[in-house]
Amino acid sequence: MNELFPIFLKLDRLNTLVVGGGNVALEKASALLRNSPSAQVTMVAPMFRPETLEFLNEYPQVLVCERAFELSDLDGRDLVVCATDNRELHVGIKAACVERHLLCNVADTPDLCDFYLGSIVQKGDLKIAISTNGKSPTLAKRIRAFLEDVIPDEIQEGLEGMEAVRKTLKGDFQAKIKALNELTKDLVFRK
Ligand SMILES: C[C@@]1(CC(=O)O)C2=NC(=C\c3[nH]c(c(CCC(=O)O)c3CC(=O)O)Cc3[nH]c(c(CC(=O)O)c3CCC(=O)O)/C=C3\N/C(=C\2)[C@@H](CCC(=O)O)[C@]3(C)CC(=O)O)/[C@H]1CCC(=O)O
Ligand SMILES: NC(=O)c1ccc[n+]([C@@H]2O[C@H](COP(=O)([O-])OP(=O)(O)OC[C@H]3O[C@@H](n4cnc5c(N)ncnc54)[C@H](O)[C@@H]3O)[C@@H](O)[C@H]2O)c1
C-alpha cells in the first residue's frame, strides 16, 4: 500500500530552498517552477551549471547564491530540497531540518525524504499528481505521458463551464451536490 498523502502546495506563499546547482538541482528546480512559476525559491551552490542558470533566467524571482551551503540558509524556509553530489552534506541538512521541523526532500534518496516529488499531468486547471511510492519514477513518467495523451484539451472548457454554473447555483448544500453530480455525469466519460 502507498501510504503517502498527496497535497497541492501554494509555493508562491512558501519559501523553498534548493541546495545544489547541477543537473539534479535543475531537474528538481524545474519540477517546482514549471508547476508553480511564482514559487519563492532560493538556490545555493558553489557551482551552477550553465543550463541551470539559463533555465532560471525565466524566473527572475529565484535567488541564486553562488557559495557552499551554510546552516543559516535554513532560516525562514518552509521546504528544503537537497540535490548536490555530497551524501554526507545531505544527511547533515536532513538532521538540521528535523530539528527545525522543516520538510526536506533529498533528490533520489527515499530514506532521507519527508516527501517525494510526483510526476505531474497538467491540462489547464486540471492537475494530476502520480506516485509509484518510489517504486519506479520511470513508470510514473510513462503514466503521465499516457494521461496527457488521453485527457482532451477541452477538459478546460468543461472546468470553466462548471465553475460558472457552480457560482449560480442556489439552494442548500445537498441540492447543489445533486445538481453538480447530474451536470458532470457525462462530462468525463462520454460513451
Ligand atoms: C516523478 C519524478 C519527479 C521529479 O523528480 O520531478 C521523480 N523522479 C523522476 C524521474 C526519474 N528519477 C530517476 C530516473 C531514472 C530512472 C529510474 O530510476 O527510474 C527518472 C526517470 C527519468 O529521468 O527519465 C532516478 C531516481 N529517482 C529516485 C531514485 C532513488 C531510488 O529509487 O532509490 C532514483 C535512482 C537514482 C540513481 O540511480 O542513483 C527517487 C525518487 N524520484 C522521485 C520522483 C520520487 C519518487 C516518485 C515516485 O513515487 O514514483 C523519489 C523517491 C524521491 C524524489 O526524488 O522526490 C520524476 C519524473 C518526472 C516526469 O514525469 O517526467
Ligand atoms: N545527473 C543525473 O541525472 C544523475 C543520475 C543519477 C545519480 N546522480 C547522482 O546525483 C548527484 C548529483 O548529480 P549532478 O549531475 O546534479 O551533479 P553536478 O556535478 O551537476 O552538481 C552537483 C552540485 O552540487 C553542488 N554542491 C556540492 N557541494 C555543495 C555544498 N557544500 N553546498 C551546496 N552545493 C554543493 C555543486 O556546486 C553542484 O552544483 C551525484 O552524486 C550523481 O552521481 C545523478
Automatic annotation (TrEMBL):
It catalyses: precorrin-2 + NAD(+) = sirohydrochlorin + NADH + 2 H(+). Keywords: NAD, Oxidoreductase, Porphyrin biosynthesis. Pathway: Porphyrin-containing compound metabolism; siroheme biosynthesis; sirohydrochlorin from precorrin-2: step 1/1. Its EC number is 1.3.1.76. InterPro entries: Met8-like, NAD(P)-bd_dom_sf, Sirohaem_synthase_central, Sirohaem_synthase_N. It is an enzyme of class 1 (oxidoreductase). It comes from the Bacteria. Residues 124-149 form the Siroheme synthase central domain. PANTHER family: SIROHEME BIOSYNTHESIS PROTEIN MET8 (PTHR35330). NCBIfam families: cysG_Nterm. This is precorrin-2 dehydrogenase.
